[in-house]
UniProtKB/TrEMBL annotation, chain A:
Source organism (scientific name): Liquidambar formosana
UniProt entry tagged with the keyword Membrane: yes
Alphabetically ordered keywords of this record: Cytoplasmic vesicle, Golgi apparatus, Membrane, Protein transport, Transport
Chief location bin: membrane
Residue ranges of coiled coil: none
Official protein name in the record: AP complex subunit sigma
Membrane topology type: Peripheral membrane protein
Gene Ontology molecular function: clathrin adaptor activity
Stored InterPro entries: AP1_sigma, AP_complex_ssu, AP_mu_sigma_su, Clathrin_sm-chain_CS, Longin-like_dom_sf
Compartments (UniProt record): Cytoplasmic vesicle, Clathrin-coated vesicle membrane; Golgi apparatus
Family membership noted in the UniProt record: Belongs to the adaptor complexes small subunit family.
Keyword Zinc: no
UniProtKB/TrEMBL annotation, chain B:
Transmembrane segments: 846-863
InterPro entries the UniProt entry points to: Adaptor_Complx_Large_Subunit (IPR050840), AP1_complex_gsu (IPR017107), ARM-like (IPR011989), ARM-type_fold (IPR016024), Clathrin/coatomer_adapt-like_N (IPR002553), Clathrin_a/b/g-adaptin_app_Ig (IPR008152), Clathrin_app_Ig-like_sf (IPR013041), GAE_dom (IPR008153)
Origin organism lineage: Eukaryota, Viridiplantae, Streptophyta, Embryophyta, Tracheophyta
Alphabetical list of PANTHER family matching this protein: ADAPTIN, ALPHA/GAMMA/EPSILON
Family indicated by similarity: Belongs to the adaptor complexes large subunit family.
This protein's GO CC annotations: AP-1 adaptor complex
Protein name (database record): AP-1 complex subunit gamma
Chief localization: membrane
Amino acid sequence: MIHFVLLISRQGKVRLTKWYSPYSQKERTKVIRELSGVILTRGPKLCNFVEWRGYKVVYKRYASLYFCMCIDQEDNELEILEIIHHFVEILDRYFGSVCELDLIFNFHKAYYILDELLIAGELQESSKKTVARLIAAQDSLVETAKEQANSISNIIAQATK
Amino acid sequence: MNPFSSGTRLRDMIRAIRACKTAAEERAVVRKECAAIRASVSENDQDYRHRNLAKLMFIHMLGYPTHFGQMECLKLIASAGFPEKRIGYLGLMLLLDERQEVLMLVTNSLKQDLNHSNQYIVGLALCALGNICSAEMARDLAPEVERLLQFRDPNIRKKAALCSIRIIKKVPDLAENFINPAATLLKEKHHGVLITGVQLCTDLCKVSPEALEYFRKKCTDGLVKVLKDVVNSPYAPEYDIAGITDPFLHIKLLKLLRVLGQGDADASDCMNDILAQVATKTESNKNAGNAILYECVETIMSIEDNSGLRVLAINILGRFLSNRDNNIRYVALNMLMKAITVDAQAVQRHRATILECVKDSDASIRKRALELVYLLVNDSNVKPLTKELIDYLEVSDQDFKGDLTAKICSIVEKFSPEKIWYIDQMLKVLSEAGNFVKDEVWHALIVVISNASDLHGYTVRSLYRAFQTSVEQESLVRVTVWCIGEYGDMLVNNVGMLDKEEPITVTESDAVDVIEIAIKHHKSDLTTRAMAFIALLKLSCRFPTCSQRIRDIIFPYKGNLVLELQQRSIEFNSIIEKHQNIRSALVERMPVLDEATYSGRRAGSLPATVSTSNGASLNLPNGVAKPTAAPLVDLLDLTSDDAPAPSSSGGDFLQDLLGVDLSPASSQTGTSAASKTGTDVLLDLLSIGTPSPVQSSSSTADILSSIQDNKTSVATLERLSSPSSHSAQASSPAGASPVMDLLDGFTPNLAMPVYPSVVAFESSSLKIMFNFSKPPGNPQTTLIQANFINMSPHVYTDFIFQAAVPKFLQLHLDPASSNTLPASDNGSITQSLRVTNSQHGKVSELHFFIIYTFFPVLILGFMT
């Protein structure tokens, strides 16, 4: 199972964290500091796995962002690499060639996508299209609700004029 | 409306934070935002709750505290609209975790949302439950989730399946409720549901043997068929990754088959064909294919024996191992570690490649490879493998040396065919990476050296040579110093030359040079220096011609700021100067250290350690190096009459006091300046039992040395040699520590009916007189009348006298006549002590200490 997902920029800034195992706030900060120290300093040609506190951290760099997932010793590291890539492709499709700024200003959207991809530290969907469809449906629900709210406030505004 | 809360939009806040140039600026912006959000929270502002929570999540991600937003999440979740719920659940998962009490409050909202008519809201609730539910929530909401496993929309079914995984992990008792619904999921066509269903079954098998049995019987064939279908499926653009249809599903299925096949021949048999197909047909030029092959190999290795398949699997690993991609090599090494239990021979074939991986530039690969090599070592290949590893030690990275050294040492210890090889290899490691060697390792080396009596000469000469080049390596220096101390004469006289050795000429002063370098080298720490002192003491006896020079080396340390060195310097100096006659007995060679005891001790059966020692160096095999003073004090107290033992610290002081029966003769004075008084105490105390109370120091020494034959000196050294033997001796019937043994000789004198009064303690500030009497008819009891006289010009207030005795004594302390002691011999305090000796005839001693304020002085003395 995946214990947590981290997105860290090359400067060590945290862009997304998702914890599937309980870590206290203090532990989280410590984990992030420790891991960014290890991962950001590794050379480009080295393997994508780091052994850490009896777990393995699988990471992959996309442009200026490191996607990291922490898994158990006996899990399949190559599969996790594939999951990371899967996630990145979905993000890319959603934002249209995603960049770090998209993930900063629309961090909540990145979380929504991740929630359609992973639950309880396990993969829930292998089809990019399905994920995109589900996200789009929920986004449109939000849009409709907003429009309704706007039109209601317009009506109220009109009425009270 | 609150003037603050109208504030910035989320986007503007993120911009403002990003524009900050320093951490302080960022903190200021965040503080301002947090204040605004707090104000808004306390006003129960509904319009901006949504935006505030989004901001809080961003702030949380930056690592600032956001606990005040937790209730906002609950309010949002409880509101009716989808947008509010969406952000509310996101905040819940981000800001809270399962251990927070607040989470319980959300159970009801979750329950309602799980039954909501909008499937997306059901989805949100399932997702939150799956990510952060606690055991209580799992129990409360399990029926809802179970029902949702049959929901009409597959996207809800898959979420419910993963949510069930979390539930059964939190509450394994609930597993049986999920077995049947999980089995139905395996018949689905929707990949999302299949993947999650298979995963749920895998986790059910882990927590419930019942589930494992059920799936094994009912589902194995079906799963094999599903795998067959997906392997042979035509191109499916929706699931295609690098030409493979849904590698994720492949992997999940292989994983579940592994669980089902493990330990069950029928199930394993059933999946042979499909495994063979996956292993042979999967393309290995892309990561996705390799991920499947990797999983397949692991399944083949785990299920019941099928040699054909295993050959296939080992071949795949061989191919992986020679891959240029580091990731593939890493997983190959990982898998070979598992394969080694199945087919060690096949793994041995890759030894050369694996050894190459130990030298890889990638730390992760090196670590894996090293662990694998460690498993590969056996009696037949230990020599070449060790040679390779030691050769590599020279060029390896600094941060890898620690691991590498530990493994080499462990290999050498475990597989060494003969002692000389062991010693040779260890010397190489020590000279290459002595600073990385753990203490137990060089302790073990010393034990081995001490047991290899025919190699003493060879070892000490090799160490002498190694020392010349590797003086930086601390543990090499220690072993060298120890060996030269013990076997220095063999170094000089070339005793026990082996054929392969080159002759070497070492003079006595060369040997002393080595020790002197070790003492003076800037990298040497206290332990090394202390060991070097002992070595010098031993050499001073073995090389009489160097005796003066050794004194010159030791002597300057009598003013050293490190108490341990200062003490040793003073003690050894006096031994060299004044006690020629007992010196040779004192510094005899250490008795052979018992390998069995030692290895037993390393295995963790270390007996409770003696309270007199302070931590760090407890398990030194060689007590000579023991930085704590106590055992040495024992030795010196009885051999030299003018070697006071200043206490090393307040902590020890008390420890020593408490451990009276363990270090019976330790004399401690509060400050080293007071050492002279300590001497007096010793002198007085030693003379109590002798017929003439006034005695010259030399005669005391003579008496002592005449009693002390070789045997006792060895015994004393043994006592020194380790804390454990120390305690063992103390508890043995013969029991008593050497001091008692030695002084037992005096007991007849003690039985004299008239007891002289004794000056128990005297310094420029305080004098204590003891008067003894025995009540008639009760020979076991001794009455002591203590008389305290203040010699200083100051009044002592709060004067307290305390005493401690060994266990076989009972001490009764009557109240003192006063607690104020007038200055300048102007009166005295008297206090009586009654000591009852349950083992009459045994010599006892009394430890006492005095606390008097004015000067915060503690004095500890003892008497017999």
